[in-house]
Amino acid sequence: xxxxxxxxxxxxxxxxxxxxxxxxxxxxxxxxxxxxxxxxxxxxxxxxxxxxxxxxxxxxxxxxxxxxxxxxxxxxxxxxxxxxxxxxxxxxxxxxxxxxxxxxxxxxxxxxxxxxxxxxxxxxxxxxxxxxxxxxxxxxxxxxxxxxxxxxxxxxxxxxxxxxxxxxxxxxxxxxxxxxxxxxxxxxxxxxxxxxxxxxxxxxxxxxxxxxxxxxxxxxxxxxxxxxxxxxxxxxxxxxxxxxxxxxxxxxxxxxxx
Length: 258
Hints:
Layout: H1 7-39, H2 53-80, H3 83-115, H4 123-142, H5 148-162, H6 165-175, H7 195-244, H8 247-257
Function: Required for the export of heme to the periplasm for the biogenesis of c-type cytochromes.
InterPro entries: Cyt_c_assembly (IPR002541), Cyt_c_biogenesis_CcmC (IPR003557), Cyt_c_biogenesis_CcsA/CcmC (IPR045062)
Protein name: Heme exporter protein C
């Protein structure tokens, strides 16, 4: 684990993963969207409105998946002081927030023709909205301090506390009366959804996961490069300051002035 936390090892591994992640993302999203929009049948009750499901459900999965990943990275940052773990958590937050927001938006678009309203305060919707606020709170908190280390610790603590909301989102339809139907994919006894709808869901979920991996690698690379540039700049300033205080430097400058 510690070996992969080295930036040089990560960058080497990321370079090998990136082409595969891009290829898998493009292929699975292309095939999944084709199956979802063209091949899969319309629902006998909902009609073509059901096709919103192919974006809504994978977005919900990814919102939860990214949050768990962010919390795990936050724990690693707090316990083992891995700088890469903190960078990965920061890089994950905007992606997870985007998926969560996409889930809420598509849910409203799907709910209006089905329920007759854009929003209801049931347990699933409310807990998903809380998840979005947790993402936004994390992003605000890590950038709220002049000392980046304090921001990282505060953000990691919030991420870990917020993990309690993940099972609430998942099991809210079982624990309370909600407008959402119970799970039809991840359930005991196997999926109850027809394969013609299950395959597009699966492929788009894989595509979204690949997209997350691609964006994560790009954002971590960017942050590592920015930190390296800042370190070089600070090193240059430090060297220049040290030179101006060196006797030989002062003597040379004095001789040059004559």
